[in-house]
Design brief:
Layout lengths: L2 H4 L6 E4 L8 H14 L10 H4 L4 H11 L6 H14 L10 H10 L4 E5 L3 H8 L5 H4 L2 E4 L11 H9 L7 E5 L2 H10 L2 E4 L15 E2 L24 E13 L5 H5 L5 E2 L5 H6 L3 E9 L3 E10 L10 E6 L11 E12 L6 H18 L3 H4 L10
Parallel strand pairs: 1-2, 1-4, 2-3, 4-5, 5-6
Antiparallel strand pairs: 7-8, 7-12, 9-10, 9-12, 10-11
Amino acid sequence: MSMSNSLKKLSSCVLIDLDGTLINTDGVVSDILRKYLSKYGKQWDGREALKIVGKTPLEAATTIVEDYGLPCGVDEFNSEFYPLFSAQMDKIKSLPGANRLIRHLNGHGVPMALASNSSRANIESKISYHQGWKDCFSVIIGSDEVSKGKPSPDLFLQAARKLNRDPGECLVIEDSVPGVLAGKAAGATVIAVPSLPKQTHLYTSADEVINSLLDLKPEKWGLPPFQDWIENTLPIDPWRIGGPVIKGFGRGSKVLGIPTANLSTKDYAEELVEHPSGVYFGWAGLATRGVFKMVMSIGWNPYFNNTEKTIEPWLLHDFTEDFYGEELCLIIVGYIRPEANFPSLESLVAKIHEDREVAEKALDLPSYAKFKDDPYLTK
């Protein structure tokens, strides 16, 4: 065991945030704010997202009213916003890896607490739409049950107390900077899973920063490891996307020597939000050409510093001609790794070819190979 590993605190319980960590609240909030602000002639462009993530409802409302110069008070804003939010609560989806994590920890008897800056009633309403979640948490605490919400440590200290654990034994999982600061102030070990893109640099106080819950390694912190990885891949619930092949940035073949069959992202805004940046794999269907193995990146491509999140599949076949404009159907069945930056073009290309080898080998396994015959690929 290395010195760095031997110095890590081992955890006996997990304290988890809800909004932005387990469920995609931000998407629903943004949709409501976009419509709400339009009646005042204002446009929600997401510029305040970083300011409100992880804040209490009162703090978030105050920020929006003040920064957008709304002609209403905070109380009036909340009285109009929350009925709209409550009506959309059933549409808030769990984030990738959330159900897997909760089932895993619960199945191994690891005590869990849900500690959120939302009110207790609001928390229970949200999780009521996610089957089995409430029964998995030994403790549920909202900011209305403590003196101060995050970044104060009160929520996590109270959660640890109710679990009869010392805070130093607790592993906190958080998406926001206020949440990370609260966990550290409580004396806990903290894993950050940033809910906003390109904000990793703000989480320097966390003990670890990961791309998504899919990348969590519980054994690093003394908790039972996941056992569901197969041949360096993680099976995921299959998702299907498709559309005409478009020209991308022109760097696939020219710069990388890797011809990608890019899809437009304009019809897949929801999928781009729901699925973490990273490398995935599956099957690709071209109506006139057949079905092929495929490895795919989704994300910001840090080496090239994309300004928009992209979908870039690589069909693992040597085509003799381009097929721009042809309809491409994809079934994504597994996950390989999180998005990463690289020190050189050579190291990036080498990693992409390594991803190809992992995908090609995995897609021969029965659990993945069965999707090759899915009717969606040849529709």
